[in-house]
Design a protein that fits this description.
Layout: H1 13-27, E1 60-65, E2 71-73, E3 76-78, H2 80-92, E4 103-108, E5 112-117, E6 120-125, H3 131-157, H4 166-175, E7 180-182
Helix pairs in contact: 2-3, 3-4
Length: 191
């Protein structure tokens, strides 16, 4: 007669599996989708009258991306790697060039008077523009503004922008505003 093998007690196997699953869910990082960080303007009051705001042409640089992912900044073709420098040159206007944006004296609370650029970056793209090209252009524009803010922070606070407290960061944001206007995509190929 054959000897009977003892059975393994499996009553706690489900509990152990549940604990392991819970442990891995709590300790692992789920992939997070990253996107563009933009703060939308507040909704206007329903009773507010619409004002026709005229912006001086010299205060706008138009950045266009066509369906072939070719880039134009101003009136000249440009490579994405050069866009950051073009945007910085446009916003700083160090030589007060009459073709670049004008500056206005602004009283910044906690800092004093500062000549702030009125420059606006107008981004226009074609419906056929690839997402990769669109993101690359967005990154270069934001990188240019971030570098200008970092330079301002280092000159005035002796620290990079990221290490400033909230009040100092607010001062930097007022001195170096991020004015980006995005037009609705157009289908240029039908023209």
């Amino acid at each position: 007669m054959a000897k009977k093998l003892p059975e393994i007690n499996s009553s706690s196997t489900a509990d152990i599996a549940f604990l392991l699953l819970s442990f891995f869910l709590m300790t692992s990082n789920m992939e997070q989708n990253s996107g563009l960080q933009r703060r939308l303007p507040p909704m206007p009051d329903e009773n507010q009258k619409v004002q026709n705001q005229q912006i001086n042409r010299r205060n706008i640089i138009v950045v266009k991306i066509n369906s072939a992912d070719r880039l134009m900044a101003g009136n000249e073709p440009i490579d994405v790697s050069q866009l950051k420098y073009k945007i910085k040159e446009f916003l700083v206007n160090a030589s007060n060039d009459p073709k670049l944006p004008e500056k206005e004296k602004k009283a910044i609370e906690g800092f004093g008077d500062y000549m702030v650029s009125k420059g606006v970056i107008s981004l226009q793209n074609d419906r056929g523009t690839s997402y990769q090209a669109y993101i690359a252009v967005q990154n270069e524009i934001v990188k240019a503004i971030d570098e200008l803010r970092d330079e301002f922070a280092r000159v005035n606070f002796n620290r990079p922008y990221a290490s400033l407290d909230e009040e100092q960061q607010k001062i930097v944001r007022e001195a170096i505003p991020q004015n980006i206007s995005e037009a609705e995509p157009k289908d240029v190929s039908k023209r």
